[in-house]
Specification:
By secondary structure, the protein is an alpha/beta fold. It contains 8 helices and 14 strands. A 7-stranded mixed β-sheet has the order 1-9-8-7-4-2-3, with helices on both faces. A 3-stranded antiparallel β-sheet has the order 12-13-14. Strands 5-6 form a two-stranded antiparallel ribbon. Strand 2, helix 3 (about 100-115) and strand 3 (about 120-125) form a beta-alpha-beta unit. The radius of gyration is 21 Å and the shape is globular. The two termini are about 15 Å apart.
């Protein structure tokens, strides 16, 4: 039955930005935080490298990344980081690919159609579900997303990944890092981008390598040529400077300053535990509303696979999701919340740590109002 809401809700979200990327800036952010950015100077100067390394070391502390894992700032966002890993590491053994949304499918395309690897198995699932994780063979390399940014489906934990695996686990974790507790020792390559959970500026990616991944880089040479932007070794040895702030190409120091601001905010509010709690509170607020609203459901059908960042909803009564999203945007209460273009029609609400739960709670009556208006 359609809920009829004749009057517009009186309360509005203070911040209507619920985009899944680039994501909302942290609460209290203003352009003034960039006033001391290291501009007009070389990123290879002592001071420039110090700021880049500061991003790396703060990242390590907040996320509790093991000391023997290497961390690099790389070009081209999460996409660049993932493709750097695929082009540099794959081909040494067979590969299992997991895909349950658009970005996972992109990595399947890269491996099958671009790298043209022959010994490949692909395990796919439709939007809203996970593939059968028990079918994965960890004597092979495994490529997967931790959180499906366009489907709102995440792996529930790392229990399905063995500690004594033979292959490498390559994990695109771009909308999971800083919002979910990752089992670092079960992951060999982890990637993400600045424009997700901490609301940083785009175009820069993070690449984390386990000792096993680093060893693969120096013991295996792919049969295909590697562009300069992907090269992590030189003369058979790891380019250690890349993991100390000596970036492969020129980074934006304005973006670096913004990334440092996000990291400092994370430290101030209590680190990873606080960041996860903020995201979980946002998911809980939506879940409470969904449970009492008959015409909406999560796209992720299994509760423990529901993302707490890219929260995807579908309308079970056939409502026009695009019309609802347009009404919310016209009222300036929710911007960029339409489902991803390849996903089932619905809404995708970002619930990462930079989003205030009070804004989520203020948005929900507006969805009810827009739903009624669209039905009328």
């Amino acid at each position: 039955m359609t809920t009829h809401v004749s009057a517009k809700p009186s309360a509005r979200p203070k911040n209507p930005q619920f985009s899944s990327g680039p994501c909302a800036k942290r609460p209290g952010w203003s352009v003034d935080v960039l006033k001391d950015a290291f501009l007009g100077r070389s990123h290879r100067s002592k001071e420039g490298k110090a700021r880049l390394n500061d991003v790396i070391e703060r990242t390590r502390r907040i996320l509790s990344i093991p000391d023997d894992y290497r961390i690099a700032i790389v070009p081209a966002s999460d996409t660049g980081a993932v493709e750097m890993a695929l082009w540099s590491l794959l081909g040494a053994r067979g590969v299992d690919l997991l895909a349950w949304e658009s970005f996972g499918q992109d990595w399947v395309t890269d491996v099958v159609k671009q790298l043209k690897l022959q010994d490949v198995r692909s395990f796919d699932a439709p939007y809203g579900a996970l593939p059968d994780l028990t079918q994965v063979d960890f004597t092979r390399d495994v490529v997967f997303t931790w959180n499906g940014t366009t489907s709102g489906v995440r792996v529930p934990d790392g229990a399905w990944i063995p500690s004594d695996r033979e292959g490498l686990t390559i994990c695109d974790a771009t909308s999971a890092v800083y919002a979910m507790d990752l089992p670092w020792r079960k992951l060999d390559v982890i990637t993400w981008s600045w424009q997700k959970v901490l609301g940083g500026e785009a175009q820069h990616g993070m690449l984390v390598l386990s000792p096993r991944a680093a060893e693969r880089l120096t013991s295996y040479t792919p049969s295909w040529p590697l562009p300069k932007l992907f090269r992590l070794t030189a003369k058979g040895a790891l380019s250690e400077g890349v993991f100390k702030g000596e970036t492969i190409n020129t980074p934006s120091m304005l973006c670096v300053e913004d990334a440092l601001d996000g990291l400092q905010w994370a430290e101030k509010i209590g680190g990873l535990k606080a960041l996860i709690a903020r995201s979980e509170a946002n998911l809980t607020a939506i879940a409470t509303w969904v449970a009492k609203t008959p015409w909406v459901e999560f796209l992720a059908s299994v509760p423990n696979t529901r993302s707490n960042t890219s929260i995807c909803l579908v309308f079970t009564d056939g409502s026009d999701a695009a019309a609802i999203a347009k009404l919310l945007e016209a009222e300036n209460v929710a911007l960029d919340v339409a489902a991803y273009r390849a996903a089932p029609a619905g809404l995708r609400i970002w619930g990462g740590a930079t989003v205030e739960t009070a804004d989520i709670e203020a948005l929900l009556p507006w969805i009810e109002w827009a739903h009624a208006q669209a039905a009328a």
